[in-house]
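Final report, Chapter 2: Outcomes

The project's central promise was a pipeline that accepts a single protein chain and returns its three-dimensional structure in a standardized token representation, suitable for archiving and comparison. That pipeline is now operational. To close this chapter, we reproduce one record exactly as it appears in the project archive, with the input sequence first and the structure output second.
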Amino acid sequence: MIVVFAVVILIGTALSARIKLKAGAVRQPVPQRPIVHPVLFRIVSIALALCALAFVSSVLFGFVAFMNSWNRWHQYEGQSYHQSEFQITQVYFQRGRKGAVDAYASGTVEGQREWMNLIPYLHQTPRSEAQLDELVGPGITIPIFFFPKLKGRARVQFDDGIPPAEAARVDTIKALKYGLLCAVLSAGMLFLLSRLRGLCYDNSAAALRAAYPAQIR
């Protein structure tokens, strides 16, 4: 939520500044100050574009990671579970339209048929059905956390020593921490680079009078 509020504030500030610029713009073109360091100006402009991309990416992907972990945390928080075993009957490999890969299995847990996501157990995403068959197959037994009150694949979670709710809580804190850190660092670099780019212009009195004749007399 902090990230969302920060994005809304930034968007509002940018729109407000743009409206003010349009309202105060002069119809006749205003002469620009000459650039005294053209090479540095190009380098700083490229760095500004990269920092802007890093800022947007950190906000976007940080928010997505935060929400995914947050939803998973509250999905398993307070749910009753016990440790058990999942015996694989058959494995399945699916590739989505956008290249997303899904690897899962059907099997039995305490005599009942259940479904399980295999990627957390494999610690990797298989690239093909043949590779999945090499990694895991029928008859293999996997330690799990079993959630009898949930539905679908959510009922069976790989037991890596940490309950799903606790693991998701840690991931939520990490996503919030590193997402905000990257956003703040990117914003700070944008500010410093914008100031540095200002030094690339000719800031002499003559140049300022030529560029802003109405403001400087």
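Archive annotation: The longest strand covers residues 82-95.
This record, like all others produced under the grant, will remain available to the consortium after the project formally closes.
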